[in-house]
Design a protein that fits this description.
Number of strands: 0
Structural class: mainly alpha
Protein name: MerC mercury resistance protein
Organism: Winogradskya humida
Distance between the termini: 14 Å
Shape: globular
Helix content: over 70%
Radius of gyration: 14 Å
Number of helices: 4
Low-confidence stretches: none
Order of helices and strands: HHHH
Oligomer: single chain
Strand content: under 5%
Largest sheet: none
Length: 103
């Protein structure tokens, strides 16, 4: 069964942030972020080219990094939702909506 990478990326960004916020343990939230990155990258590598996989990984990590300064301007929830929406949209467009190569 195919797992939509858009859901993986958005879910891990939101879930990691919420876990870190609620527990006060940022490394624990980072584990969720890292797990989402590994799972999504594995699916991207199965479905797309190495160049697209690399671009999607950069998008995921870049959105995470940019959410921090963005949170200072618009607040944490809007920043996390923006980062999640951007990564989900990129994942959907590049990996989820097209026919996929088979291993």
């Amino acid at each position: 069964m195919r797992v939509p990478t858009a859901a993986i990326t958005a879910g891990s960004l939101i879930g990691g942030w919420q876990l870190a916020r609620r527990t006060g343990n940022r490394p624990l939230g980072g584990l969720i972020l890292a797990a989402g990155a590994v799972l999504a990258a594995r699916e991207w590598s199965r479905r797309t080219s190495p160049a697209v996989t690399g671009a999607l990984i950069a998008t995921y990590l870049g959105a995470f990094g940019l959410s921090h300064p963005l949170a200072k301007r618009i607040g944490p929830w809007p920043a996390v939702l923006t980062a999640s929406a951007l990564t989900a949209a990129a994942s959907y467009a590049a990996a989820d909506r097209h026919p996929h190569k088979m291993p």
